[in-house]
Amino acid sequence: MAKKELKWYKIFASTEDANKQVPLNTTKRARIGTQKVCIAHTSEGFFAVDDECTHMRASLTNGRLNNFSEVVCPWHDYRFCLKTGAEKSGKNTTPLETHKIEEREDGIYLGLYKNPKPPQRDEFSY
Ligand code: FES
Questions:
Q1: Which of 51, 64, 70, 78 for mutating ligand 1's site (highest number of atoms within 8 Å of CB)?
Q2: 10-residue averages of pLDDT along the chain (126 residues)
Q3: Would you say 108 and 12 are in contact if contact means Cβ atoms under 8 Å apart?
């Protein structure tokens, strides 16, 4: 089986830029091609998870963050750990896919494993 390849996308020019665009305790949706990612900023730092809830596909960017670095889905209040993707409210649903965030000298990068189906456009947007 082929090893998954990580591809990096610069999503913020600097930590200051990230703090400005995603203030503490907020989320922002990033779109890489067809993939939507929820960028979350908590007291523990920046996290990235799939934007789509694994229960019924609500956008988690429209949810809220709690004090345990969890994102709470806006539709049925399932809670997902931003570090592991695990569902934490006991509903036993599929975990979210988590993504890597890396702070570098020239900005903050989001690492995504290449999709089995490559996106039509290889671009970044909010
Ligand atoms: S759609 Fe997210 S908890 Fe139901």
A1: 78
A2: 81 97 98 94 97 96 98 97 96 93 96 63 52
A3: yes
pLDDT at 92: 85
Domains of the chain by residue range: 6-113
DSSP 74: T
**For the sheet containing 45-50, what is the strand order?**
6-12, 107-113, 98-104, 45-50, 35-42, 26-32, 124-125
Which of 38, 49, 76 maximizes ligand 1 atoms within 8 Å of its Cβ, making it the mutation to test the pocket? 76
The residues lining ligand 1, judged by C-beta closer than 6 Å to any ligand atom, are: 53, 55-56, 58, 73, 75-76, 78
Q: Could you tell me which CATH number the domain at 6-113 has?
A: 2.102.10.10
